[in-house]
Amino acid sequence: MIGGAPVFEAIANRFYDLMEQDPAYAALRAMHAEDLAPMRQSLPRFLAGWAGGPRDWFEANPGKCMMSLHRDFPIDRTTADQWAEAMTRAIADIAPKPANVAQAMIDVLTRMARNMAR
Ligand code: HEM
Fold first, then answer.
1. Contact yes or no for 7/94 (Cβ under 8 A)
2. From 34, 67, 73, 106, mutation site for ligand 1 pocket: most ligand atoms within 8 A of C-beta
C-alpha cells in the first residue's frame, strides 16, 4: 500500500543521511557505529516486515523484539526525540502515498521511539 521495499529504503537512507549530516542529531549519531551501512540495510528490512510486507528481517532475527534489542542502549528522552524527529523528517521528505498511512507511520514510530527512553 505504501510502495514496497524502494520506499522503505528511501526513508531509511534519508533518515541516516539526516543523522550523519544534521548536527541536531549528533547525540544519536554518536550512539551508532561509525559505519552506518549495516543499518541502511537492516532498518528498511525491519520496517517492511513491521508494516506487513516481506518478513526477511524477522526470519533472519528469530524471536528478536525491537524493544528488547534496544534495552541495553543508553536511550534517554533527548536521543529518543532525535530519533523520532529525524524519522518524521525522513518520511515527510520521501512523502509516500497515501498520506494518511505515512502520517500513521510517523505517529506509531514516534511512540515506539519515545517508549524506548528511560
Ligand atoms: C529511541 C531512539 C533510538 C535509538 C537511540 C536507537 C539506537 C540504536 C543503536 C545504537 C543501534 C545499534 C546500531 C549500531 O551498532 O550501529 C540500533 C539498532 C537498530 N535500531 Fe535503533 N534506536 C532507536 C529507535 C529505534 C526504533 C524506534 C526502531 C524501529 C522502528 C529502530 C530500529 C533499529 C534497527 C532495525 C536496528 C538494527 C537491528 C539489527 O538488525 O541488528 N531503532 N538502534
1. yes
2. 73
